[in-house]
Write a structure and sequence with these properties.
Blueprint (H helix, E strand, L loop, with lengths): L5 E2 L4 E2 L9 H10 L4 H18 L5 H9 L7
Antiparallel strand pairs: 1-2
Helix pairs in contact: 2-3
Length: about 80
């Protein structure tokens, strides 16, 4: 991965300043975890929980869409 990682407490990308996971981070994550999508789901789930705790003023549904709407596990 490059510098498209979240800044803690704000959960903005340190590289581009957009909500994390930003578009570039999503592309990188999909590539990095392409052979282990369940591990990506676990990583995103863990990050989601941390973000939800740190950003309690943001509705959970909004954060859920931000973290998971772009990612699908295939059977």
């Amino acid at each position: 991965m490059t510098g498209h990682v979240p800044a803690r407490r704000t959960w903005l990308c340190v590289s581009c300043g957009r909500d994390w996971p930003c578009t570039a981070a999503r592309v990188e994550l999909l590539d990095e975890y392409r052979d282990v999508p369940v591990a990506l789901a676990m990583y995103l789930g863990s990050a989601f929980v941390e973000c939800a705790v740190e950003m309690a003023d943001i509705p959970v549904g909004e954060l859920s869409r931000r973290f998971f709407a772009w990612f699908r596990l295939r059977r």
